[in-house]
Amino acid sequence: MSRKPLAIGTLSHLIGYHLRRASGAFALDFHEAMAGTGMRQVLLGILAIVEANPGVNQGAVGTALGIKRANMVALINELVDAGLLARAVAPDDRRAFSLTLTSVGRERLTECTARIEAHEARMLDQFTNAERQTLIALLARIEARKP
């Protein structure tokens, strides 16, 4: 027996409600797409930033991703221990560490990026390319307002 969906009332016009629901759907599909890789969104974010900025200071990576310093240390340790990142004393600031991807890290990022692209294609298969770009632009405007 099929039931008629419940009306969601005032929630129907609340953007935050729809963002949370969409985020939950994306997160679940992302988790399934990454099965077997041992990778989480935050780790992939770090690898992507390091790939785009070889030798970057780990503090700058944390700032770019909104990760607190104390949490960043544990995340970097996890990636170094997994052989995905190399950490060295920064030549311009001996108190800081610079980061680079290892060859294994580059391969893992390439594999995971392909999985993410397939995941996003699945999730957004009803969107045109123009709509996807509009969605990214609109979300970026919301993100830019964070404190």
TrEMBL record:
PROSITE patterns tied to this protein: HTH_MARR_2 (PS50995)
SMART domains: HTH_MARR
Domain HTH marR-type: residue ranges: 12-144
Protein name as it appears in the record: MarR family winged helix-turn-helix transcriptional regulator
